[in-house]
Amino acid sequence: MNKITVAQAAEILGRGERTVKHYATNGLLTRHKAPGKTNPVTVYDEEEVEALKKQMDDELDAVAESQEAAKQKSKPFQLARRPTIEGSGLNRADDMARFITLLSENVAQRISAPRSTPLSDKLMLSLPEAAEVSGISVEKLRAAVKAGELKTIKGIGGGHGKVKRNVLDNYVDKLK
């Protein structure tokens, strides 16, 4: 059994050295210690690395085949493979135009899609939702939050948080 270094295993697998070490940590490869100049070094069995490479290639081929079958059904966005002056093999202007068209269609579908939960059933509302329900602009609601007139519950990741429906109703009643 031929032993190879992390760098050699990374080259065979077409991955980085950290990824090879990650594979070993997760049990996909077995680490072996070999004597080095001053300290032992980690080495891998070349046959095991080659077997992992073959397994990964087979899995990629299976995924590619299933994606190809799905493409035949749905005709998704595909890159044009026409030679360009630079010889890159991609016609970027055509690809970008097609990508933007598909992206705008996707956004339009998402915007026109019905809400999963109607606003009338929600107990917690984002500021845009609160604006829609109350008829008050989002900017005015943000100003009220900043001034402390409207209490929000902050969520993870910052932002303006959510407004409880009863708090929003009380705020709207005070404005009347």
Describe the structure using short key phrases.
about 180 residues, alpha+beta, Multidrug-efflux Transporter Regulator, Chain: A, Domain 2, 3 domains, three-stranded antiparallel β-sheet, about 55% helix, elongated
- The first-to-last residue Cα distance is 84 Å
Broad CATH class of the largest domain: Mainly Alpha
Shape: elongated
Helix content: 40-55%
Across the major sheet, the strand order is 1-3-2
- What's the total number of strands? 6
Q: What gyration radius follows from the Cα positions, in whole Å?
A: 28 Å
- CATH architecture of the largest domain, by name, is Orthogonal Bundle
Note the beta-strand portion. Answer: 5-15%
Tally of separate domains = 3
Mean pLDDT: 81
Task: List segments where confidence is low: pLDDT < 50 over at least 5 consecutive residues.
Answer: none
By secondary-structure content and strand pairing, the structural class works out as alpha+beta
Topology:
Layout: E1 3-4, H1 6-13, H2 17-25, E2 31-34, E3 41-45, H3 46-74, H4 92-112, E4 124-125, H5 127-134, H6 138-147, E5 153-155, E6 158-164, H7 165-175
Antiparallel strand pairs: 1-3, 2-3, 4-6, 5-6
Helix pairs in contact: 1-2
Task: Explain what this protein looks like in three dimensions.
The chain has 176 residues and is α+β, with helices and mostly antiparallel strands. 55% of the residues lie in helices and 13% in strands. The protein folds into three domains: 3-68, Multidrug-efflux Transporter Regulator, Chain: A, Domain 2; 77-112; 119-175, Multidrug-efflux Transporter Regulator, Chain: A, Domain 2 (Orthogonal Bundle), CATH 1.10.1660. The strands form two sheets. Strands 1-3-2 form a three-stranded antiparallel sheet. Strands 4-6-5 form a three-stranded antiparallel sheet. Helix 1 packs across helix 2. The longest helix is centred in the middle third of the chain and has 29 residues, at 46-74.
